[in-house]
Amino acid sequence: MLSEKQHQRKAALDSYREGLLSLGKVAEILGLDPVSARRYLKEKGIPIRSQDLPKIQKDADNA
Asked: What is the SS3 string spanning the chain?
C-alpha cells in the first residue's frame, strides 16, 4: 500500500505524462527544483515535454 506522499508523487508523474501538469508543478510536488526534477524524470524514463512556441506566446500574453 502506498503512503499518501508516494500516492501524490505517482499521481503527479502520471499527470505529467498525460500533459496535465507542467514540469514546474511536478517539481513542486516532488519537492525538487526544476533541474533536479528533470533529472528525476529522466532517471524514471519519463520524457521531458516542451511547449511549442504558440503555447509559450499565449502564456506570456496572459501573464
From this structure: CCCHHHHHHHHHHHHHHCCCCCHHHHHHHHCCCHHHHHHHHHHCCCCCCCCCHHHHHHHHHHC
Q: Cα–Cα distance between 55 and 45 in angstroms, integer?
A: 25
Instruction: Provide the whole-model pTM.
Output: 0.73
Task: Dihedral sign for Cα 20, 26, 28, 33, please.
Answer: negative
Residue 12's φ and ψ, nearest 5 degrees, are: -65, -45
Per-residue pLDDT at 63 exceeds 70: no
Greatest CA separation for the chain: 44
pLDDT tens per residue, range 39-56: 999 999 999 987 677 877
